[in-house]
Amino acid sequence: MNYMKPYSKAYFFRFFFEHIWRAWDLEEENICYTGSLIAARFKLYQDIENGIIPAAVASELRSLVKKALSVRQEIERVEAIAEGEDPDSDIDQRDVVQLIKLHQQMEKLRSRYDSLQDPVLRMLSRDQQDIEWFECQDRRKRDHC
């Protein structure tokens, strides 16, 4: 009997939506899950699971994904309200402004996620944070002396 097949499909489907798919993927009209995109996201998942990525970075990545899901839900909510309005009436400018802000917020989340996903950019980000931390420590020493 092949009773594992439905379980396998459900498992892979859930895994895809938890670890590969991102809320900002819906922002692109023609998102294509190429081998390189899936491989990069799967490698990130493995690096987090294996402790290669520092816990603080992994936590920030999870936070970005969670925030992006929240922004996506808000975008869908505003779009549903706008679609429900009378087609002959003018589009509510507040809805337009809110959607623009939400899409900008989504892009910022995606940009930060991408910078943490890429090993080189992640290292540069850590180096920049270290520089800022040392500069802050120097300022504190000067101010207290």
UniProtKB/TrEMBL annotation:
Native organism is: Penaeus vannamei
Which superkingdom, per the lineage? Eukaryota
Report what the protein is called: Putative SHC SH2 domain-binding protein 1-like B
Domain SHC SH2 residue range list: 13-122
| Gene Ontology biological-process entries | male meiosis cytokinesis; spermatogenesis
